[in-house]
């Protein structure tokens, strides 16, 4: 198949490709950054009696405290942002729930049990528990696995919200966001280790997940320049206040506080907007789930090895080796075991990669030859050379469902509708063309999501205001970590329909004349 989006750099589709690629790299880079902050925190230790045994007031302890309102909120924000690429669609609840069960619950069950066993035989390890209390690792927060428990609850809540359309419009979404913010601020996180299945932690993380959804789904609002400026300013002010409390050794803003919430939300939006793409972090971000799951194994192993060889006296060396082991070890583990079907499913919650090899970073989301799974109904079209797509008489449009709008707009579309590529670029098809269909556009997209194909007649409005009627065929195509693509092929049938209307009108008049003379 021809990568027509990349083969015409002068076309609007190429700009969309670059934009999507940049955003994909930005997400992976931020995932890598979140991994670095998380692993660094666990190398240092959550308390002065763990990890490096860094005392309060030491640079390492200050570093660990400095990012406590950014680490897990950033992970959660990115989870919501990526979910918005491939959200729950109408009629797909069982399939969606099944995928999340495999992706999240299996690793939670298996890796938690593995950690429990390893901790039980490792002197001084965090998470040790008597055998008759082992059931608690699944019922209550257990070391770093509390995050998985909380995310499972959040996804269950999102499925309910999507089912009732409460995230479908900006107004409804704003109401949900306000509600989860209120819940967040009302929580008492002092004894969160006793929260059943990390339900308190789910309430703590929910605003950041919802913010991620909104930053993607309603990007025109939440990522507008004015909002961005306010967000950056709020982030700088809140982090300045928080940093001053650290330097003066005043009580820290606890999780669930107003200051912590502002830092978490504004830092995510700011980083998404201004943090530079960096290939090493993007490469690491491709393994973020493995790093999250397995970094304690490698950090602990590195610390033990350093003690054995007599190099544990240097705090700087312990930190550097522990950080490197916690980041690189899980990536190597996934590359080695990712090709084993059962192991990959149980440990990483995904189907086996070919030979356990993963290219870094992930492929650009709009590279058609490998990244798009094309249904057989449209495969013939997608294998055509890009020159043919440009010179065909049918208007060919490719757009993202709940995503970045129109990505490809061929020459026939320009001639049929009167909009240039640049004018169509990034616009929502139904808004640009004022689409009219028998059951409405909502019903059209519902059927398209359910069956993967929609065929029927549509009425569109040209740039000059004239109406055209088209015979349309819409087909879904999936992308990795991006919203569904829609391939729309429209054939102008305006003249044909007018001729048919005229013929039908003539036949009706003839019947009336005959009826009069009989």
Q: Share of helix among residues?
A: 55-70%
Biggest pleated sheet: 6 strands, antiparallel
Q: Please, how many domains?
A: 2
Catalogue the unreliable spans: 1-21, 354-384
Number of strands: 6
Order of helices and strands: HHHHHHHHHHHHHHHHHEHHEEHHHHEEEH
- Beta-strand residue percentage: 5-15%
Radius of gyration: 27 Å
- Mean pLDDT across the residues is 83
Query: What is the overall shape?
Result: elongated
Number of DSSP helices?
A: 24
Label the structural class: alpha+beta
How far the N terminus sits from the C terminus, by CA atoms, comes to: 64 Å
Q: How would you sum up this structure, described in words?
A:
This protein is of the alpha+beta class and 518 residues long. The chain has 2 domains: 266 residues, no CATH class; 128 residues, PAS domain (Beta-Lactamase), CATH 3.30.450. The chain contains 24 helices and 6 strands. Strands 1, 2, 3, 4, 5 and 6 form a 6-stranded antiparallel sheet that branches. Helix 5 crosses helix 16 and helix 7 crosses helix 9. The longest helix has 33 residues. The relative contact order is 0.12. The N terminus is likely disordered.
Layout of secondary structure:
Elements (H helix, E strand, L loop, with lengths): L3 H4 L4 H33 L14 H8 L4 H13 L9 H28 L15 H4 L6 H18 L6 H17 L12 H19 L1 H4 L2 H23 L10 H17 L4 H7 L2 H21 L6 H23 L3 H8 L19 H4 E2 L2 H7 L3 H6 L3 E6 L5 E4 L1 H7 L3 H4 L4 H4 L8 H11 L1 E9 L5 E13 L5 E8 L1 H24 L1
Antiparallel strand pairs: 1-5, 2-3, 2-6, 4-5, 5-6
């Amino acid at each position: 198949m021809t990568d027509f989006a990349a083969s015409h750099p002068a076309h609007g589709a190429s700009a969309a490709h670059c934009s999507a690629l940049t955003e994909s790299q930005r997400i992976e880079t931020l995932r890598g950054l979140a991994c670095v902050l998380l692993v660094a925190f666990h190398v240092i230790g959550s308390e002065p009696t763990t990890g490096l045994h860094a005392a309060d007031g030491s640079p390492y302890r200050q570093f660990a405290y400095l990012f406590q309102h950014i680490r897990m909120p950033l992970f959660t924000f990115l989870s919501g942002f990526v979910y918005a690429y491939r959200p729950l669609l109408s009629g797909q609840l069982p399939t969606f729930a099944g995928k999340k069960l495999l992706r999240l619950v299996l690793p939670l069950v298996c890796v938690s049990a593995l950690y429990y066993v390893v901790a039980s035989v490792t002197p001084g390890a965090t998470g040790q528990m008597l055998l008759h209390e082992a059931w608690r690792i699944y019922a209550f927060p257990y070391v770093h696995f509390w995050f998985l428990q909380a995310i499972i609850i959040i996804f269950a809540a999102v499925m309910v919200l999507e089912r009732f359309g409460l995230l479908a419009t900006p107004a409804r979404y704003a109401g949900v966001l306000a509600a989860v913010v209120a819940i967040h601020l009302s929580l008492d996180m002092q004894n969160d280790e006793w929260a059943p299945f990390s339900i308190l932690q789910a309430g703590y993380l929910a605003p950041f997940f919802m913010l991620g959804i909104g930053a993607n789904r309603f990007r025109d609002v939440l990522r507008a320049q004015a909002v961005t400026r306010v967000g950056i300013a709020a982030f700088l002010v809140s982090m300045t206040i928080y940093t001053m409390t650290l330097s003066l050794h005043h009580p820290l803003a606890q999780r669930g506080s107003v200051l912590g919430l502002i830092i978490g939300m504004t830092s995510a939006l700011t980083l998404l907007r201004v943090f530079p793409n960096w290939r090493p972090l993007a490469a690491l971000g491709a393994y973020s789930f493995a790093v999250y799951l397995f970094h304690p194994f490698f950090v602990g192993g590195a610390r033990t090895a350093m003690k054995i060889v007599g190099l544990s006296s240097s705090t700087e060396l312990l930190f550097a080796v522990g950080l490197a082991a916690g980041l690189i070890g899980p990536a190597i583990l996934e590359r080695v075991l990712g090709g084993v079907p059962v192991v990959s499913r149980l440990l990483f919650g995904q189907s086996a990669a070919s030979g356990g090899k993963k290219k870094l970073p992930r492929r650009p989301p709009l590279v058609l030859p490998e990244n798009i799974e094309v249904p057989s109904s449209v495969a013939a079209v997608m294998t055509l050379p890009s020159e043919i797509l440009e010179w065909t008489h049918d208007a060919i449009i490719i757009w993202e469902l709940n995503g970045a709008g129109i990505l490809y707009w061929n020459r026939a579309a320009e001639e049929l509708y009167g909009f240039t590529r640049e004018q169509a670029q990034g616009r929502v098809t139904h808004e640009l063309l004022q689409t009219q269909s028998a059951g409405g556009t909502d019903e059209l997209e519902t059927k398209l999501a359910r069956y993967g194909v929609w065929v029927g007649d549509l009425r569109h409005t040209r740039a000059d205001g004239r109406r055209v009627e088209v015979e349309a065929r819409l087909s879904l195509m999936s992308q990795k970590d991006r919203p569904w693509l829609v391939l729309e092929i429209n054939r102008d049938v305006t003249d044909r329909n007018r001729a048919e209307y005229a013929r039908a009108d003539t036949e009706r008049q003839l019947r009336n004349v005959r009826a009069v003379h009989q």
